[in-house]
Amino acid sequence: MAHTARPLVQLSLATNYALGGLDVRGYHAFNLAIHLLAGLLLFGIVRRTLESEPLRARYAEGAPWLAAAVAAIWLVHPLQTESVTYVIQRAEALMGLFFLLTLYCLIRGSRSPHRKAWYLAAVLACVLGMGSKEVMAAAPLVALLYDRVFLSSSFKTLIRERWKLYFNLAATWAILAALLVTSHPEGQTVLVAGLTPWRYAVTQSGVIAHYLRLALWPHPLVLDYTWPLAETVTAVAPQVLVVLTLLAGTLWALRRRPPLGFLGAWFFLILAPTSSILPIADVAFEHRMYLPLAAVVALGVFGAHEALRRLATAAALRQGLAVGLLGMAVIALTGATVRRNEDYRSEFSIWSDTVANRPDNPRAHSNLGVILQAQGKRREALAQYYEALRLKPDYPDPHNNVGVILAGEGRIDEAIAHYSEALRLAPYYPDAHNNLGAALLGEGRVEEAIAHFAVALSVKPDNPDAHNNLGAALYAQGRVREATARFSEALRLNPSDADAHNNLGTALLAQGRAKEAIAHFSEVLRLKPTSSDAHYNLGLAMHLGGDTQGAIAQYSQAVQLSPDNAQAHNNLGLALYRQGRIREALTHLAKAARLRSEFAPALESLRKDQESREEVKRQP
Hints:
The chain is mainly α. The chain has helices at 7-20, 24-50, 56-59, 63-76, 81-84, 90-110, 115-130, 139-151, 155-182, 197-216, 237-256, 258-275, 292-311, 315-342, 347-357, 362-374, 378-391, 396-408, 412-425, 430-442, 446-459, 464-476, 480-493, 498-510, 514-527, 532-544, 548-561, 566-578, 582-595, 600-618. The radius of gyration is 34 Å and the shape is elongated. The model has no long low-confidence stretch (mean pLDDT 94).
């Protein structure tokens, strides 16, 4: 966690793992709890805002009901699904929780005799938010603007009364900066070199307009858009016009109608880290609307409230209409959210849905291919990889994955070509180096294989497969001690790697360390109890370790599981012969000779030996 910009998210995931392993129910329960707590905070913020000095006269009486309406719609809106159901996006929800908590503590502190405690809580919440996701950078600015609009008569008054609070809130930016500087980029927001801020901003006009449409009509929802970059302003002119109009309206409202302007500022300020001029790798994701959606919902609820006040003069009628409209909205949105959650029931279903909605998305095709490949559906997986490459020929991942499938089919030359192309596109792609090395090793090109394994490990030193493969290459060169060290490292990184246990056992056996080898071969059998080779290897280790009876038991299991295992039949025959079980021994030796002709001389030799023994017995 010391190398991530989101340590609190990693800590929460580690806690989930410690409590329930990979049982997904615990992760979903945690995400749902975060979302519900955020909804409660939103309710509290909206209610207290409606009871603040600028809005009290008009909204105080109905504040609890209006706040409940905003929170309820925000909680059940389908656009929130990605932040709540998609486990890793708890980063967005967790940041949202602390963002809302920061604002709530500010509001409570402004009206409480224990203001120092509330302000300290606000700063701590802001710190935790900075450790959750980079979007939290907007929190100090939103808090300052909220204070000016709803709590203070002027910025001068605000600074005089709460300058220490805002100094400390701003200081949390230093924490975020330190996390970004010291972290590994994997799993965080990454800036893209070569993409100009202007082009990114123009593209974001289309994205923001799309977000707004989804807030009003959340269909279809898509996990991964791989949104195309706008080539020119004219290509997205209508969306640019919409966004500029909304920005201008926000600035106007901040001067003339500050509470309304605050909703617009909330929307744009929270989106700013991802949807302004900072060019980041992924242009559009629905989870980025987690907090901005609150402004859209609030605007809709207050707009409906004002419309009802004008259209229905009778209080009873107005209340009845309000309850009816809210009920219909919540039921409809809840139904849509339940339906959307069905798409998340499996990796296959969510990526199939993504491909169906974005058929021109190469990453979606590639990811669906990975799922199909894991299910053993190689033909279907290849079709998805080839479609991804058709859409994006310079995409290294599908090339690598196609190579894996082709190598598994014995089409090694074609596999090598795909691995090589993946490395041409991404020269430091560790998986492609490892896979190419494995293919070359299988072809006997050991030196070349070692070079690729070395590169793979230089980029990703904690890759157990690469350590295991490098060990196999070193063993092939007779460098048994070096190979042993690599196999041991592979097992340190992945103690459940049956292949590494098998390879380490083989290396230990080659060094005469039969007892240690037996331990590793036994572990292979625990992991793969129906493996004929594992029984054979354990039998061999026992045989060399002097346990002939144990060896016979393991060889017997090996030939039972794999009747055509000539080596196991041969070794079983020899072991039985040494125990004087001649008839059984000759049966297995004969089977070995039929399967592999090179075992025939041994059979003939033992037959002659047995005949000589019998001849001696017949002599008086």
